[in-house]
Prior knowledge:
Strand order of the largest sheet: 3-2-1-4-5
Structural class: alpha/beta
Strand content: 5-15%
CATH topology of the largest domain: Nucleotidyltransferase, domain 5
Oligomer: single chain
Amino acid sequence: MPWPGAAWNWPARGGDVRQIVLDTETTGLDHRLGDRVIEIGCVEIVARKLTGRRFHRYLNPERRIDAGAQAVHGISDEFLLDKPRFQEVSGEFIDFIAGSELVIHNASFDVGFLNHELSLARLPALEQICGGVCDTLTLARELHPGRRNSLDALCDRYEIDNAHRSLHGALLDAELLAEVFLAMTRGQESLIIDVESKAECESVIREIAVDRSRLCVLRASPEELAAHDSVIEDMWKGGKGCCLWAARPDPALD
Length: 254
C-alpha cells in the first residue's frame, strides 16, 4: 500500500496477524527542516489481542527541541542528553516491527520522520521492513465524517479512559491508540461470537443442531401450490416470456 501517505487499508482479520501500534514524539513538525525523533513507543497486537510486548525508547536528537513541541510532550533537552541516538537502538526497533502491519494515527507524519531517521542511519525504509500501514485517522474520518477525530476525541467516543493523559507521550499514546483501534475495528469475527475453545464451539454447534431438529416444517397444500403456479403463469404472460421465477415455462403460455 502507499508509503508514506498511508491511505487506509482495512486490517486483515483472523489467523495470527501481527500488528504494531506505533507513535513518536519529535523536536518539531518537519523532518525536512532538521527535526528529529525523540521518543518511539510501540505495542504489539497478535490476532486482535494485546500481547503485552512493548518497545519504548527516548532518543538524543542532537539538536534542540522547539518550544511549541516541548509544550505538547513535555520532554526537555536536558532529559535527552544521556539517551541513545536512533542509530544505537535501530537494530532493536527493526527487530520489533519487522514483518508487521503498522497501525498509526496520522501515519504520514510518523512514517516520514521514521524513514528520515532510517535514511540517516543508512538503513532500509519502513516499506522494506514492514508489511503495510493502517492510518487510524483516515479510518476515523471514514467512520465519523465531519466530527473531531483526534486521539482524545476517539477515546471519548469509544469510552476509553485517558484521564491520565495530560501530555502527549509515545508509549502512552500507542497504548491508547491500540484500544481505540480495536474498538473501531471490532465486529463479528465469526458466526459464533465469544466462543474461544474448540470444545465450546462443538458444544454450541450440537445445541444448534438439536434445536433445529425440533422446528415444525409447514409444507404447502395442493391448493396453495396451485395458487402459486397461477401467479407464476400470470407473471409469465405479463412479462412476455421473461419471468425469472419460471425456470421451465409451459410452452403453451408463449
